[in-house]
Amino acid sequence: MNTQVTAPSTTTATDKPPVLAHMEEILARQKAAYRRMPFPTADERIDRLNRLRKVLVKYTEEICQAISDDFGNRSVHETKIGEILTCLEHIKYSVKHVNGWMKPSKRHINALHMPAKGWVQYQPLGVVGIMAPWNYPLVLSVGPLICALTAGNHAMLKISSSSPRFGKVLERALAEAFSEDVVAVINGGGVISDAFCRMPFDQITFTGSPSVGKTVMAAAAENLVPVLLELGGKSPAVVHSSMDLKDVSERLTMGKFWNAGQTCVAPDYVFVPRGRTAELIEGMRHHISNFYPTLRDNKDFTSIINDRQYNRLQGWLEDAAAKGATITVINPANENLDGTRKIAPTLISNVTEDMKVAQEEIFGPILVVREYDSMPQVVEHINDRPRPLAMYYFDYDQDRAERLSRQTHSGHFGINAVITHVAQDDLPFGGVGNSGMGKYHGHEGFLTMSHARSVMMKPRFYALRTILPPFGKPVHKIMYKAFIR
Hints:
The protein is of the alpha/beta class. The protein is 42% helix and 16% strand. The chain has helices spanning 18-36, 42-58, 60-71, 76-102, 139-150, 164-177, 191-196, 210-221, 245-257, 277-291, 307-322, 356-359, 375-383, 398-407, 442-448, 474-483; strands at 105-107, 117-124, 127-131, 154-159, 183-187, 203-207, 227-230, 236-239, 269-273, 326-329, 346-349, 366-372, 390-394, 412-415, 436-437, 450-457.
């Protein structure tokens, strides 16, 4: 992903750029506003969520067009389905459940300390900083914002410099719904991104690459700011030998080539049984041709976001070809795509470990196809590598699926479905290990962006008086016998 954070800034207070001073001023105002209302009621939170919903509906067409313009071409239908509707459903779900989530959770008090009561109170953190990438700029900025508002927080959203048109529209839309001391949008990159992740927020949510995630985490540590990191990685798909590849190829085609593969949970490579590569390729060729009969002027097929990402992908294709990979380009109308920043759906087989496509997250319309002889071989391959954000398994046998899920780690384990778990409000979203830390969406999002504060209350009668010093009284001996058995 494209969110960039530079080396530590050497800017002094006297020569600080105005935009950085403005960011600090907004944060100070948000913290002051939060202190004035440190625990918004459920009705107040619902009102904020409904205001957010209203402007998302109002600005839908502008948002879709701005994102398409930032990409060069991005299907407005992909944006409406994958981002607008996903956010609206998330808001609806949060509005329905926020009352219940806010209720204190009663906890047990052990017998030694009775009589007493204990519970957990879910307190807003304060001000949350949200750093969004360019690939799904709405759902990966507004999605965390929904969790932040549901938990009673204020928020500052840092939009990727690769999404400038979208950033301007979102800034205008959210300014219509909220005063800047509740929600604010920050646009720009470079020194702005660097300064943003060093600000003393009460939490930072970052979506991007593992390498930049490390930089963000180190910067946040300067102020001991907790971080929620969603970092991607090489998400595998595994196909059991019992599967009909017609079913598999349709689902893989949808998940891999939605947004031209620029999806953090898109399948990066797929394991198929030995000798079935050609069958999978033909199945995917069929579905690609149905989904995208043309590519060049097809508004449904998305461009690569910018020249940097386009050149990276083309370089990796050249690297794989030079090292002996078999490259199958699926361009149904055999069009010349020069000048469009579009890359035709591409399947790569006979891949070796020295190829870039085998080492790095692809993040484009390129799928690596690997063959396997046994499931233990697959498990070993996956477990020898950093834990991915998602893993997908195709098999209608639930017992085998459960066995594989217990043998591997990933942020999500999908059975016969790819990428759509991101749109499920009641499923936590996030990575594990190299693919991230922390979860959001739904209840987990509320919990992640709340402080679970323990509360214990003693009545007027103080039973502990009986066991206070001096020790060695008969009551102590009775107590030890009662509790130590």
